[in-house]
Fold:
Amino acid sequence: MPELPEVETTVRGLARYLEGERIARVAVNRPDLRRPFPPGLVQELTGARVTAMGRRAKYGLIHTDRDRTMVFHLGMSGRWRIEPERIEKHDHLVIETGSGHVLALNDARRFGSVDLVDTGGLEQWGPFATMGPEPLGEALTPRHLQRTFAGRFAPVKPLLLDQRIVAGLGNIYVCEALHRARIRPDREAGRIAPAALARLVPAIRAVLAESIAAGGSTIRDYAQPSGELGYFASSWQVYGREGDPCACGGTVARFAQGGRSTFWCPKCQK
DNA sequence: CCCTCGCCCTGCTGGC
DNA sequence: TGCCAGCAGGGCGAGG
Structure:
């Protein structure tokens, strides 16, 4: 499922087809994902030129020369299809560029979203207004985690999924980062030692950066006619590996936290 | 404010 | 082979 590295990889891949390009045509096949598409989406995008691409947390940003930014979220099953051979069932939005490239936003489970936001007011836009620091940015420090975790009794894992604390972490990479930092996912956040938080920040950065690097190589394979953008295989240490051996000699376990699966190793995560 | 829980959606998997 | 329950989960709102 698309998490931050997949969104980053998708944005970089799309940039090659969109940056500097005029949007010649926009087709909407089904006008709602999680929410209805914004009114006037087709009209506002058609004829606009893409000035730059970006990402905030798990949202992709397509900036245009009309001071409007198309903001997309891939939800659980969203992906951009590059030069699809034919339009398929879940290709909800299709963009054709001035030089004839076709890009289709496909989302079977429709947990994704598409919005149009004034570029100047992006940081104040609803979902962005209360977001915490980017996990790959300089604002995410052990000190930031120490301050936001102070006095909190909730387990650390669901807190790391809270976008107000760190923006862009999902279930997979939280499991992986906690494993790498050797922290129990059910540890009370306010009681984690500073030394462990000092391990957690670089662990978060490393799992994300490694996945982006892996996706970067996959994109070259995918960015071909009928190719797909947004997924790549990763070698996770704990996620989806219940019962598998951990490198420490333990066995990967699984339990539910806040209604979703947490994978971890009881032997090396303390 | 803090924390937990349930809902949204649909394709896929596993059990019978 | 066919059917169906269960699972995946980010974001958001409700409720304690």
Observations:
- The first helix of chain A runs from residue 4 to 18.
- Residues 219-231 of chain A have pLDDT under 50 and may be disordered.
- The CA atoms of residues 254 and 263 of chain A lie 5 Å apart.
- The domain at 142-264 of chain A is CATH 1.10.8.50 (Helicase, Ruva Protein; domain 3).
